[in-house]
Amino acid sequence: MKVCNESNVDGQKQTKTAIAPEYTQFTTRYDSETSAIWCWMSPEPRPCMNVKLIDELVQLQRQITDTYTSQNSDTIWPFRHLILASKIPGIYNLGGDLGLIKEYIVNNEEDKLRDYAYKATNLIHRNINNLDLPITMISLVQGQALGAGFEAALSCDVIIAERSSKLGFPEILFNMFPGMGAYNLLARRIGTALAERIILSGKTYTAEELYDMGVIDVIAEDGEGVQATENYLNSHNQSHNTIRSMKKIRQIVHPITQQDLFEIVDIWMEASMKLSEKDLSKMERLLFLQTDTKNTKNIKESESSKSPRRGDWRKIKDVSFPLTTHLGESVHENRRKNDGRRQKTE
Q1: CA-CA distances (angstroms) from residue 187 to 165, 197, 214?
Q2: This prediction's pTM
Q3: Fold observed for domain 3-272
Q4: How confident is the model at residue 294 (pLDDT cuts 50, 70, 90)?
Q5: Measured distance CA(291)–CA(274) in Å, rounded
Q6: Dist. CA 272–CA 179, nearest whole Å
Q7: Which strands form 136-141's sheet, in the order they lie side by side?
C-alpha cells in the first residue's frame, strides 16, 4: 500500500493527495496505532543501494514532505515515525552498488560516479534531518547491514537490531572507505577514535557488540524485531516532544551539514579513481557476494585471513586448535555435532 493512499484522517481522504507513484524497490505501510510509516526495502536485482532504490527513496521523502506540509490548517496528519526496514530475509542492505561503481571507475566516468555518490549522500542527509519534519527516523535491522546499508541505518535517530544481525564496513578490503556519512554518524554516536577503529578494521560486528559500544539503541530477539519496534513506538509516543527536542540539541552540538558530507564524498571520489586492478579485483569478490545472497554470511573480515569457512575446517586433518573462523569466533575443539547451533542467551 502506497503512502499517499494512506493519508487518511478519521476515514476521510485528504483532497490534495496525488496519484501514488509506482515504487518497485520497496513497499510502504501506514500504521495509525503507532503513527508510523513503514518502508520495507526489497531492491533488485541485488540487495544494495542501487540508483533506482535511491531515486525512489528520494521520491518517497518528497512525497511524505509534500503530504505533511500541504495539509489544511485545521488538519493534523497523525504521522510521527518513519521506519526503514527490509523485506529480504537475513539482509538489511549490502551497501553501495559495487557493479556500477566498478564500471564507472574502469571506464573513467568520474562525473557519473560523483552523481551517484551525491545522490546517496543527499538521501542520507535528508534522513539525518528527519526530512525537515517533526518526526523520528527509525531503522530496523534484521540481518546483514554493510557499507552504505549500514550508513543508511546510522542516518536514523534510532537503530533497532535483531540479535543475530551483522553490521560493518568492508570497504577497506578493496582499499577504500565508506564515504556517505559513516565517519560523521559514528563519531557523533561513539567518538572519533572508536569510529575510526570500526571503519579501518573492515570487521563485521555483531548487534550485541555494537550495542555495547553505543551504536545500536535496542536489541531484539531474532524474529521479534517488528514487535520490538512497535513496543518502542508505543513507549515513546508520549515523550515524542522531548525526543524531537533532544534531536535538535544533538544537531546543535554535533552538526552534520550537507556541505561537510559532500566534501567527504569528494575525498572518496579521488580515492576511488586511484584504485588499482588488484583493488578492483577484490571489489569484484564482494560484488559476487552481493549477487549470491546465499553466501553473504561468508564475507570475510580480512582478505589476508586464511581461516576456512564454517564447516570446512572439519575436513582438514591437521587443523590446530584454537582456530579462528571467518566470523572471528575462537574454536577450541572439534564441535562437529554442535557447531552452528550456539545461540547466546542472556
Answers
A1: 21, 11, 11
A2: 0.79
A3: 2-enoyl-CoA Hydratase; Chain A, domain 1 (3.90.226)
A4: low
A5: 25
A6: 10
A7: 26-31, 36-41, 81-86, 136-141, 158-162, 218-220
